[in-house]
Design brief:
EC number (chains A, B): 3.4.13.21
Strand content of chain A: 15-25%
CATH topology of chain A: Rossmann fold
Number of helices of chain A: 7
InterPro entries (chains A, B): Class_I_gatase-like, Peptidase_S51
Distance between the termini of chain A: 20 Å
Helix content of chain A: 10-25%
Keywords (chains A, B): Dipeptidase, Hydrolase, Protease, Serine protease
CATH superfamily of chain A: Class I glutamine amidotransferase (GATase) domain
Oligomer: homodimer
Organism (chains A, B): Flavobacterium tibetense
Protein name (chains A, B): Dipeptidase PepE
Number of domains of chain A: 1
Order of helices and strands of chain A: EHEHEHEHHEHEHEEEEE
């Protein structure tokens, strides 16, 4: 049975790394003593080692040890044997490139669909959708494909931002960008605000946190959904 | 001799489409009676026809007619015979995909390097750099490559945005994104604020408009350059 947390962000303003999620992570990973961490997205170019140390520190609060996937000679085997998997945020283009390059995309997909509990934040959440086509990141490297895990039958836009009132900037708003996405792609997109996450349990997909989320579907006006809304009919 | 305007944006807040640039465009296209317009980037999903009409209206102010590249049976021939070329803004991933798909990337590159005057705004400016790797756009389609015209020996970041003071949003700032780019790419990046443009005349590359621009180079601190700065040593 799938058991997945798809979080908009790892960190809230004025909060520590993963802090707001820890009570839920304790439950989510309740039978897990060690998590396999995928540091490929390297936020601000941080090394795999430093990123893994940062994550280990956060998870030590709930007595879970962390091992980085880069520490294993055979990353596919590491995925197959993992008790739990966490993919951290950073640059989605880099993350997806590395998942393909190291040949672990299918392995993670299979493990998680078979029940290995998974946590994604930011870029690590983006890849839980059908494609990475609604990332906010810069294309700093060229991945072999935009196709991602598809743990949910729609796309994710993490760090969703409402238009800023009174802004004089002429760049596109997030909503405009997602509408452009729908010119060429038919799957719905969920805009997850910072502090929101999706909890996938088997066939159920529930919005969690205190905020509403914004749903974009092709050819229809966007709308808001409240926390605890069941989203498994969204496709 | 190359003759290129690379503008951060087509439109300033409270201004009309291309309005702030028109006096310069009159000089830039002074021997030109008809411009070939490339509408591939389709901002907000606007059709090629509607986008071309919008551009034609703006250029009618300076007595230049506009023909969209989509109106030609042979787009390569259209490029080769163009008196001037304008690529408008929108989504860079879509624009680059279409340039490759219609086989015109090399034709435009060749024409402009041979002296056909070129104007780019936003996405149409982004592609004047070595790659589209510093676009702000969403990857709504998968282009066959991120490589672009390389009219200048660096990358462009149009609509450059300074970090917003006091922001509580945890998504990456533009500067953080460009620093991530430099983990994997060696060419400098110029952050062009709205209202700025580069004027390329032969081997000269000058910053124009009233604002400074921000230069990012690998392994060095970012710095500002003033209007009229010669940038042809930046590489």
């Amino acid at each position: 049975m799938k058991k997945i947390i798809i979080a908009s962000t790892s960190t809230l303003h004025n909060g520590g790394y993963l802090e707001y999620l820890l009570p839920n992570l304790k439950l989510h990973f309740k039978d897990v003593t060690e998590i396999l961490f995928i540091p490929y997205a390297r936020p601000s170019g941080i090394s795999h080692e430093d990123y893994t140390s940062k994550v280990a520190l956060a998870f030590s609060e709930i007595n879970i040890t962390i091992k980085g996937i880069h520490e294993f000679e055979n990353p596919i085997e590491a995925v197959e044997q993992a008790q739990g998997i966490f993919t951290g945020g950073g640059n989605t283009f880099l993350l997806v490139s590395q998942l393909y390059k190291n040949n672990v995309l299918l392995a993670v997909e299979k493990a998680v669909k078979n029940g290995t509990p998974y946590l994604g934040t930011s870029a690590g959440s983006n890849i839980c959708g059908l494609t990475m086509g609604t990332t906010n990141d810069m294309p700093i490297v060229y991945p072999p494909s935009f196709q991602t895990f598809g743990f949910v039958p729609f796309n994710i836009n993490p760090h969703y931002l409402d238009p800023i009132e009174g802004s004089t900037h002429m760049g596109e708003t997030r909503e405009t960008r997602i509408n452009e996405f729908h010119q060429f792609n038919s799957q719905p997109v969920i805009g997850l605000r910072e502090g929101s996450w999706l909890e996938v349990t088997g066939d159920s997909i529930k919005l969690k946190g205190n905020l509403t989320a914004r749903i974009f579907t092709r050819n229809n006006a966007a709308y808001e959904v409240a926390p605890e809304t069941e989203l498994n009919t969204l496709k």
